[in-house]
Structure formats: structure tokens, C-alpha cells
Design a protein that fits this description.
The complex is a heterodimer of chains A (432) and B (324). Chain A has 2 domains: 260 residues, Aldolase class I (TIM Barrel); 124 residues, no CATH class. Chain A is an alpha/beta fold and 432 residues long. Chain A starts with a helix and ends with a helix. The chains are: A alpha/beta (432), B alpha/beta (324). Chains A and B meet through helix 1, strand 1, strand 2, helix 2 and helix 6 of A and helix 4, strand 5, strand 6, helix 5 and helix 6 of B.
Chain lengths: 432, 324
């Protein structure tokens, strides 16, 4: 099969992995070297955007889409009719280097269907990374998908060459896995994540000790997965409510120190399995999950606050921060000139960056509504919740029900309730 | 009105601004002229001097916060002609106006203008790092690969952004050509030359076919979101991106491809095929929940090892879910 043909099949096979991040790894470049290629560190770079609005930062391919597993939601499951292809290690290495030199990509995101057995597959994935790092002195970004059933030794090697490693948790509970991904096991996956967490922490402690004792680093001494580990959960392929997804994410952030949990709305695939739902969930549900994820990580919200037992699914019409504010009217209005940081972060429409700026400015001058506007804050959203020197919402006399109808759109638009501009800026800044 | 003539770059503004601040010249009576308006091209031909790093931010008798100088360096790259005057006004307020807190006041209208210009320059630099596309033109006798790119930045960012490429692509020879200024790297040093026409740039690279294939196939037609794409990759960049000509067709066919997937009969192939070997048998013991009372009643007869094994499997309370 021609290389281009393989590239088409194996990119098609890889596109259901949402992650394309290339940020947050160690700062390095190839200055002063006549052979090294690449640099990384700092903010990631998106080299292109597909018409689905997703960033293209990495060459994201599978080594092979042949697989002995039979996960219903996956286009590559062994009972799918999809055409199979397989890259050689050398082919992926060469494509990565060629694309990188032309500035198409930040690096490689390599994953693979499982052939023969987990260790055989993992060995080949690791070999690609090894050749890039060792034989070609490649200093760009590498993300390797690891297989929880692979041996610890191979996962260790993967972390040595990769900036980020990831294992997809796929679904929020073992019951769902039993039905849709019979070969996968939640506790085995989490155990592997625990192993990676330990390895990352031991490595960073060792490096810290070395720094303190002034020990010099050698070239062989590689940082273990400096950009941490991430995972992905499929949304809408099973009946799990948002609460369950967020609870799982909370465990993964808390107990396994994951850097990111990605949510991927299940989308129609060619040659679908008969037990999958026919209709994919609205993309806005995925968006609300990302917003909630951000609230948990950067705004100090608990899962219970975002998706209480009484409402285990997120409101698709309004964002989860506004939802919480409407349920917690007693907290508001908040005085932007007086309130502590934690409380400012709870005001709908005001994000982390704006809060930092408000705290800076109010040391020197009291803020008026006009000032909030100058900071780029949407007054429409925060007006009912804030007090400034020239505004107190008490006189608006709005109760929660009337407030909600002010923000929620008419019923006919439910699937398109957020504008693309909102979604975009929210996805970038994470501010909701 | 006194006219201050400078070259349109940060260093030239900095020298003049320092002199004026030392002489306590207030900003109100000054007109900044950088020769880029066309009418006054006195310094126009000096625009492409070799890259000089600003040496220090400490002026004799006037101290300016480093944060301001960093901001000024970005603002200087913007093409708006009022930038020199506003920069000087803010420098004046920071020093002679004793408004040391000014940089924290994002609501101040002068500072906000500088911040907005700096953001536009930051964005332009970021897009240059993203959208430059090198085309290979050959190899040197010593085996170094040679590449050339054509790019059209909005602001004067070539000098400020070229070091990024020099560090990333240190082992290749490359040139980035733009209509205003070009950058060249030979493994040793960065050189700058005047802008050229796009006709000077190579027209193709054989890898672009592969890149286009990749672009077309990483796209998921079931999630078409054109506006999200365009806000990050505005149309003005499309003409220099080899993948952009595909966008129209991918978009047009997306709905039909998605419809076909949804309506296609579901795969009737037996879910677990007889011919293909099945997945790895789970190496874990079956994770059946343990009944604590039952275990405790038999505890006397079990070894510590057996008990600890059973403990690991216990799911009697919700704590097991969070155990690592």
C-alpha cells in the first residue's frame, strides 16, 4: 500500500482522540546544534484548523488500526468493516521529521490498535519515539498513548521519550465498559495511571534533589513525561449522567493527578455497531462538560456544586457557572470592590484573568460598571450579580426564575444555545 | 509643535524618548514622525538595518519599569502611526507624572491602547510561528537542507520573531520572505534583508500532497464548525496555506458524509468474530465485590495475605472508587 494511502487510513482512525495539546512541557530548543531538530515549551502552537474548528498541532496517527479489542464505540474494533493499514516504524519517524521541518506540526501524537498483544504493540510505539529522540535528536513534542495492559517497563520507556503519555478511560463506570468495551477494565486502567503518577513524582523529586545538590544533568537523564498524563471520556455513548462523568474526572484529577481530562461527544462513525445509540449527543453537552471541568480546576467548584444530586445532568441552555449562581442567590450580589478572590471567581461572566485584574486595579481606584466593560467583561451576564460604586442590582428586583428566562434562549434553539464566538473564547480562555 | 524624527523601530524611539525624558520635555507639544507615512522617507531606507538587541532599560536619571519596556518593544512593531506618541505619553506619566501604578491600571485609556496594540502584535507573532510553511529548495554540499517560506505578517514582527525559528530549526538553512522584510539563517547567524515580492518564493514542495491528505482525513465531518475555524485561522492567511484550498470541498461534503454514516445499515458482522483471535483475557482476578460480613466470619481461617487480597477487592462502601 502506498504511504499516502496509509496516512489517510491511519489519520481517519486517529481523529476521535480530542487531545492535540502541545503545551506545558520543558523548555528546550536546538540552538547551537548542527543535528538537532525542534523546540518546545511554553504555549502550544496550532499550525492549522480543520473545518470542524479543531486545532491541528500534532501529527496524530495510529501506528496500525488493526485491533484485537472489540470496543463498540471505536471505528477500529475488530468487528468493524473499516480498511486496515499499518505504518512501519521508519515511515512514521520520517513523516514526523518531514512535516516538522516544513513547520506543519509541533510534533507527534502516536497511538495504536492492539495487535498480537499489548507488549508487542507498545514496544513498536516506544520504538518510534526512541528513534525520534535518540537517532534524530528530535526536540519537538511527543505524545504517546499507552496501553494499560502493557508491562511497567515499557510504560517507563514511553515516559522517558514522551512529553505526555495518556491512557483513555473511555467510559465513566465499569458497568458501561462491560457493555461497550468488554476487554477494558477500569481498575486496571486506573492502576496503570497510578503507576504513571508515581513515576512522574519520583522523577521530579529526584530532579529537585539533583538541582539542590548541584548535580549536573547528563544527556541520558531524561525528564519523565514532563507534560504529565491525560485521558479521554466518551460522552453520550452510554447513559451515564454528567454527574457521573464529572465524578470520574474528579477522581482522576485528585487521585491520579491528571493534567487534563478530555470529553469527546460520541459522533457517528462508519460501520457503527448495532448497540450504539443512533443519535449523537448535542455538541453543547460536551461544551458544558469542559466548562464544568474548568470550574473544578481553576475556580474552586466541587462536583456537588456543579451537578447536585437533584440535577445530575448539566443545563444545556445556560452555562454551569450561571446555573450555580441561580441556585445560590443568597451569595449575591457580590461587591467587586470588597469581595475576596474566591467570591469574585463565582460571579457569572467574570473569568480568572479579569479577577486578577480587578484585584490589581482596586488597590488604586474603586471600580465602576464602565471599568468592568473596559476589562472586556460582558455586563449583560454579570449585572444581576455584582455591586460596583455606581450599581446595585437590588433595585432590579429579579428572582431566579425570571433571571433564568433572561439568559436561557427560546426552546426552539436548544441545540444551538451557545454562539460559536462564546464557545470559542470559552474554550480558549476557559472562562465562563 | 516640535517634530521628533525617528526610524520606525523600538531602538530609535527609545533613544529619542530617553533624551526627551531627561530634558523633561512634556508629551503634549510633540509630533512623532517615523518616515513610514511615505511623504517623509528620510529614514525609509534605513529600516532594514541588522537586528540590534536593546541594550539596557536604565536611562541616566530616569528609571522606567522593565515591564513597560517589554510592552513598548511589542507596541513598536505595530503599524499604527500614533504608537510613538502614546508610548512617550505613558513613559512620561510613569516617570515625571509619578504614576508608578499605571501599568496595573488596565482601565486607563492610554494604557489600554498600548495593551490592545501589544495584543495585536502578540497575536500576529503567534500566527507567524503557526502559519509559516517552509518549502524545500535543495541541500548544500555539506548536506544541510535548505528551505524557503513566504509569509505576510500584519505588523513589523520579522526581527522579533526570527529568533524563534533560528532556535527551532537550527540545523537547517532557511529564509522567511515577506513583503516588508526577510530573515535568513545559515546555522551561524540571522541576517535581515529588504522585503521582496511573492514571486521570489518557491511554489511547491512534494510533501504538501501528504500534508493535504492528512488535513482532509483528520477532519471529522460530523462536527462541522466553520466559524470556530475561521476565528482562529482567518481567511487573510488562507492564500499562503497549502491546505486551505481543501476547505470549501470538505465543508460542502460534510453534511452528506455524516448523513451517510448515520443512515448506513449498522454493521451486521458478528460483534465477536470466530475467525479473529479474541482480545487479551483479563489478567485481573474477576472483580466481584467482597461481602465484608462473610469474610469476617471466616477471618480466623485465612492467612494475612488472603485477607489483604480480599481487602483490595472490597467495594462495600463508596471509598473503593477513589482508592489508588
Amino acid at each position: 500500500m502506498e504511504l499516502k494511502n496509509k496516512l489517510e487510513i491511519l489519520a481517519d482512525a486517529a481523529k476521535y482522540d480530542a487531545s492535540c495539546a502541545s503545551s506545558g512541557t520543558t523548555k528546550r530548543d536546538s540552538a547551537g546544534s548542527a543535528t538537532a531538530l525542534g523546540s518546545s515549551g511554553g504555549a502550544g502552537i496550532c499550525h492549522s484548523y480543520a473545518p470542524d474548528g479543531r486545532c491541528i498541532s500534532l501529527l496524530k496517527v495510529l501506528l496500525t488500526n488493526a485491533c484485537i479489542y472489540d470496543c463498540h464505540y471505536c471505528i477500529n474494533r475488530r468487528s468493524s468493516d473499516v480498511q486496515r493499514a499499518r505504518f512501519s516504524v521508519a515511515e512514521v519517524v520520517q513523516l514526523t521529521l518531514d512535516f516538522y521541518k516544513r513547520n506543519y506540526i509541533e510534533g507527534l501524537f502516536l497511538s495504536s490498535g492492539i495487535v498480537r498483544n499489548p507488549d508487542y504493540t507498545m514496544e513498536r510505539v516506544v520504538e518510534v519515539a526512541r528513534q525520534l529522540r535518540v537517532d534524530h535528536d528530535f526536540r519537538g513534542y511527543i505524545h504517546l498513548k499507552t496501553i494499560p495492559e502493557a508491562s511497567q517497563e515499557l510504560i517507563d520507556q514511553a515516559g522517558e521519550y514522551a512529553d505526555r503519555i495518556s491512557i483513555n478511560i473511555e467510559l465513566a463506570s465499569q458497568q458501561s465498559l462491560d457493555r461497550l468495551a468488554p476487554e477494558k477494565n477500569m481498575s486496571r486502567t486506573q492502576k496503570a495511571m497510578g503507576g504513571i503518577r508515581t513515576r512522574i513524582e519520583t522523577d521530579s523529586e529526584r530532579r529537585k534533589a539533583d538541582r539542590q545538590s548541584g548535580k549536573r544533568r547528563t544527556k541520558k537523564d531524561r525528564h519523565f513525561a514532563p507534560a504529565g498524563q491525560s485521558t479521554q471520556m466518551i460522552v453520550g455513548a452510554d447513559a451515564s449522567p454528567d454527574r457521573q462523568l464529572l465524578d470520574r474526572a474528579d477522581v482522576l484529577y485528585g487521585a491520579y493527578h491528571l493534567k487534563r481530562v478530555y470529553y469527546s461527544a460520541f459522533s457517528p462513525i462508519p460501520s457503527a455497531s448495532p448497540i450504539l445509540p443512533l443519535k449523537s449527543p448535542p455538541l453543547v453537552r460536551e461544551h458544558r462538560l469542559y466548562q464544568s471541568d474548568w470550574l473544578m480546576r481553576f475556580y474552586g467548584y466541587s462536583v456537588e456544586e456543579i451537578a447536585p444530586d437533584s440535577a445530575p445532568n448539566l443545563d444545556l441552555d445556560i452555562d454551569p457557572k450561571l446555573s450555580w449562581a441561580l441556585r445560590s442567590r443568597e451569595t449575591f450580589p457580590v461587591d467587586v470592590n470588597q469581595a475576596p478572590r474566591e467570591l469574585l471567581l463565582r460571579i457569572p461572566g467574570i473569568g480568572v484573568r479579569s479577577v486578577t485584574r480587578i484585584l490589581q486595579i482596586r488597590r488604586w481606584s474603586a471600580l465602576r460598571l464602565e471599568d468592568l466593560q473596559k476589562l472586556g467583561i460582558s455586563l449583560k451576564k454579570c449585572l444581576p450579580f455584582v455591586i460596583t460604586t455606581d450599581h446595585n442590582p437590588a433595585r432590579l428586583g429579579l428572582d431566579s426564575d425570571r433571571l433564568r428566562s433572561r439568559f436561557a434562549p427560546g426552546p426552539q434553539q436548544t441545540e444551538f444555545t451557545f454562539t460559536v464566538a462564546d464557545a470559542k473564547s470559552s474554550a480558549i480562555t476557559g472562562e465562563v | 509643535m516640535e517634530t521628533i524624527r525617528i526610524k520606525p523601530n523600538f531602538e530609535s524611539w527609545r533613544m529619542q524618548a530617553r533624551k526627551l525624558l531627561v530634558q523633561s520635555v512634556p508629551p503634549e507639544g510633540l509630533l512623532w514622525e517615523d518616515g513610514s507615512s511615505g511623504a517623509d522617507s528620510l529614514f525609509g531606507d534605513l529600516e532594514n538595518n541588522a537586528f540590534e538587541k536593546p541594550s539596557t532599560t536604565i536611562m541616566p536619571q530616569v528609571r522606567i519599569p522593565r515591564d513597560f519596556m517589554n510592552l513598548a518593544e511589542l507596541v513598536a512593531c505595530h503599524r499604527v502611526s500614533e504608537r510613538w506618541g502614546v508610548l512617550y505619553k505613558v513613559a512620561w506619566r510613569l516617570t515625571h507624572g509619578k504614576e508608578r501604578q499605571l501599568l496595573a491600571l488596565r482601565i486607563d485609556s492610554d494604557l489600554k491602547r498600548l495593551e490592545d496594540w501589544a495584543s495585536a502584535v502578540r497575536r500576529d507573532r503567534h500566527k507567524m510561528k503557526a502559519f509559516v510553511r517552509f518549502r524545500k529548495i535543495g541541500d548544500t554540499e555539506t548536506g544541510r537542507e535548505q528551505f524557503v517560506a513566504w509569509f505576510e505578517p500584519e505588523h513589523s514582527i520579522v526581527e522579533l520573531t526570527a529568533p524563534f525559528f533560528a532556535k527551532r530549526f537550527a540545523s537547517m538553512d532557511w529564509s522567511i520572505l515577506t513583503p516588508w522584510q526577510c530573515a535568513h539563517w545559515d546555522g551561524q547567524s540571522l541576517q535581515f534583508s529588504p522585503g521582496v515580492s511573492s514571486r521570489e518564493a518557491p511554489k511547491e514542495d512534494q510533501l504538501e500532497d501528504y500534508w493535504r491528505s492528512y488535513y482532509a482525513h483528520i477532519f471529522n465531518p460530523a462536527r462541522l464548525k466553520l466559524n470556530a475555524m475561521q476565528s482562529e485561522m482567518p481567511k487573510k492567511y488562507w492564500k499562503n496555506l497549502p491546505e486551505a484550498p481543501l476547505i470549501a470541498e470538505l465543508t460542502r461534503k460534510a453534511a452528506r458524509r455524516t448523513g451517510d454514516m448515520v443512515e448506513a445499515p449498522v454493521s451486521t458482522k458478528a460483534h465477536v468474530s470466530e475467525r479473529i483471535p479474541s482480545g487479551v483475557p483479563s489478567p485481573d482476578p474477576p472483580s466481584r465485590s467482597v461481602e465484608p460480613a462473610g469474610v469476617l466470619s471466616r477471618a480466623d481461617t485465612m492467612s494475612l495475605e488472603e485477607l489483604s487480597q480480599l481487602g483490595l477487592q472490597c467495594k462495600a462502601c463508596p471509598l473503593h472508587d477513589r482508592a489508588t
